[in-house]
Amino acid sequence: MTGQNVVNVSADASTYVFDNDGDHSGDQHRHLARLLDPLTFGRLESAGVGPGWNCLEVGAGGGSVALWLAERVAPHGHVLATDIKPGLIPSREGLTVVRHDIVADPLPEGAFDLIHARLVLSHLPRRDRVLRRLCAALRPGGLLQLDEIDITRWAEPSVPDGHEVYGAYVRAMARVLGTAGSDPTWGARVAGEMARAGLVDVDPVRWTEVWRPGSAGLDLMISNSRHLQDRLVEAGMTPDRLREVREVMSAPGFSAPSFDIHSVLARRAFGG
Ligand SMILES: C[S@@+](CC[C@H](N)C(=O)[O-])C[C@H]1O[C@@H](n2cnc3c(N)ncnc32)[C@H](O)[C@@H]1O
């Protein structure tokens, strides 16, 4: 943790299932960055983010997107990166890191040219209210990009070996997330929710790929099986079954479809 520029606002109690300060947190964020940064950066580039922009990165996690944004908006732009546990977000010029709960803590209105959040709102209670807060925090004409998950089509591996245990693992993961109040299918509805919140020029993209051993996706799934082991056991897996599914996900020849990510860009109307 660098943390010289971490400002404490509040660290509200959260039902969020992962953590940013445990043995597996660094791995989780490295794998997430390897898996999704190419999609996220491509979308942000298409949004035109550039020098001088004032950006908010919500739930910044390991900070890869916040760092990328800070480079893009330099020398005169600024990025505010928030998280309930911001300890893994690195420092750099033009980037301020804040311990901040997007559900409960104050947020300036009409302030940002761009707000981005990836895999955050689907974890949150009252995510519709959070979405409206984000809209209000945009300046008129400002852009919101949400990159969100939908696990609906995720559970079936492409090859028969390991089919049963992989499916059981994915279903247990869905139960763990659902029990904690996350909605891991929210991605499929995010474009509609953004339009309902009053945003315009809604531009959705759905991303999916096939995961093979050594891919960022399966490395993330292996890391998550350790990160959430206790909860996965409560949800019906056993330590032996978790060991077995890690072996399955590492075996040459295994492949499985990814979850879907819906990356949606939209704009606050001028005069909105
Ligand atoms: C799945 S991680 C995604 C991290 C990062 N956005 C990415 O995609 O690489 C979710 C992040 O949201 C943060 N988070 C969870 N609840 C939050 C809240 N109420 N306010 C702000 N951040 C929150 C977590 O601490 C975690 O860093």
TL;DR of this structure?
It is built from eight helices and ten strands. The chain has 272 residues and is an alpha/beta fold.
Helix % is: 25-40%
Number of strands: 10
CATH C-level class of the domain at 6-152 and 182-209 and 260-267: Alpha Beta
CATH fold-level assignment of the domain at 6-152 and 182-209 and 260-267:
Rossmann fold
Q: Supply the number of helical segments.
A: 8
Could you give the distance between the termini? 39 Å
Order of helices and strands: EHEHEEEHEHHEEHHHEE
User: Which overall shape is indicated by the principal axes computed on the Cα atoms?
Assistant: globular
Mind telling me the CATH superfamily name of the domain at 6-152 and 182-209 and 260-267? Vaccinia Virus protein VP39
- Main sheet: strand order: 1-4-3-2-5-6-10-7
Structural class: alpha/beta
Provide an overview of this structure.
With 272 residues, this protein is an alpha/beta fold. It has eight helices and ten strands. The protein has an eight-stranded mixed beta sheet with strand order 1-4-3-2-5-6-10-7, with helices on both faces. Strands 8-9 form a two-stranded antiparallel sheet. The protein has helices at 25-47, 64-73, 127-137, 163-179, 190-196, 216-227, 229-234, 239-250, and strands at 6-8, 54-58, 78-83, 95-99, 112-118, 138-150, 200-207, 210-211, 256-257, 260-267. The N and C termini lie far apart (39 Å). It has a domain at 6-152 and 182-209 and 260-267: Vaccinia Virus protein VP39 (Rossmann fold, 3-Layer(aba) Sandwich). Bound molecules: S-adenosylmethionine (SAM).
